[in-house]
Amino acid sequence: MKSLLLKIVCVFAILGIATSCKDDSAGPSYDTNYIVFGSFFGECLGEPCIEIFKIENGKLYEDTADIYPEQRLYEGQFIQLPQSKYDIVKDIIHKVPEELLNDTTIVFGVPDAHDQGGLYLELKVEGKRKFWLIDTEVTRIPVYLRSFSNILKEYINKLQ
Which of 2, 63, 102, 144 has CB atoms 3.0–4.6 Å from 52's, for a disulfide? Predict the structure, then answer.
């Protein structure tokens, strides 16, 4: 009897572990063609003031145009970076909160209003380009975006 009970407990434990695992390689529940992300600072001098990156087709690119993002889609000039840099940020698409896609807001907070900088995010989702400008001061953005905002800043710093 103990042997049968032990087998049943083991089966349920294995089933519980198998069904609770999340497959991060599956990606988001929406079809994403690419992601563009970066940071910008208006009252700044030099190349690090605007850092915009793009991930597309398993490759990472950096923008060389360094154009200050406005309230429109970013049109950059991208060059491919080494695979080692891509490996640092390849999972970023899995970290984008799905709530963002349902939010009609384009500008969160007041990005770069007092020289604190801002974050740019763009996705091509199911054939449509969507973009957002995000304040770096997390108290000014929705709670669901705060963790992702910190992740973006961390990844951008790692790429510099």
Answer: 63
C-beta of residue 76 within 8 angstroms of C-beta of residue 92: no
Looking at the DSSP assignment, which residues form a beta bridge with residue 35? 55, 123
Q: Is 152 helix (H, G, I), strand (E, B) or coil?
A: helix
Q: What is the Cα–Cα distance from 116 to 132, expressed in whole angstroms?
A: 17
Question: What is the model's pTM?
Answer: 0.79
Strands, sheet with 118-125, edge to edge from the N-terminal-most edge strand: 78-80, 59-63, 50-56, 32-40, 118-125, 128-135, 107-108
DSSP-based three-state secondary structure for 62: strand
Rounded Cα distance between 17 and 72, Å, is 45
Torsional sign, CA 66, 142, 35, 104: negative
pLDDT tens digits for 64-92? 999 999 888 999 999 999 999 999 999 99
